[in-house]
Amino acid sequence: MTIDELKREALQLDASKRASLARDLLVSLDDLSEAEVERLWLEEAVRRDEEMASGKVQPIPMDEVFAELRATRK
């Protein structure tokens, strides 16, 4: 199963099960060394940069993101 397949499956869970899964995944990261966490964040940053450079995803300006968040909180 690929990461994308896993994400699709996980997103089909109800909110409480997704929250439980997220909590379990976060707890599993507690055992990582600081160097490992830094390496993983660097990999994620590179992946996101490559997605934007290839046109796979489009960046959303920060002010639009925050405006949308404010609108959904009302």
- The shape is extended
The biggest beta sheet, please?
none
Number of strands: 0
Strand content: under 5%
- Spans of at least 5 consecutive residues whose pLDDT stays below 50 are none
Radius of gyration equals 16 Å
Question: Helix count, per DSSP?
Answer: 4
Order of secondary-structure elements:
HHHH
Average residue pLDDT: 92
Distance between the termini: 38 Å
Q: What's the number of structural domains?
A: 2
Question: Based on helices, strands and strand pairing, what is the structural class?
Answer: mainly alpha
Helix content: over 70%
General description of the model:
It is a single chain. The chain contains four helices and no strands. It has two domains: 1-31, no CATH class; 33-74, no CATH class. Helices cover 77% and strands 0% of the residues. By secondary structure, the protein is mostly helical. The chain is extended and about 35 Å long. The mean pLDDT is 92.
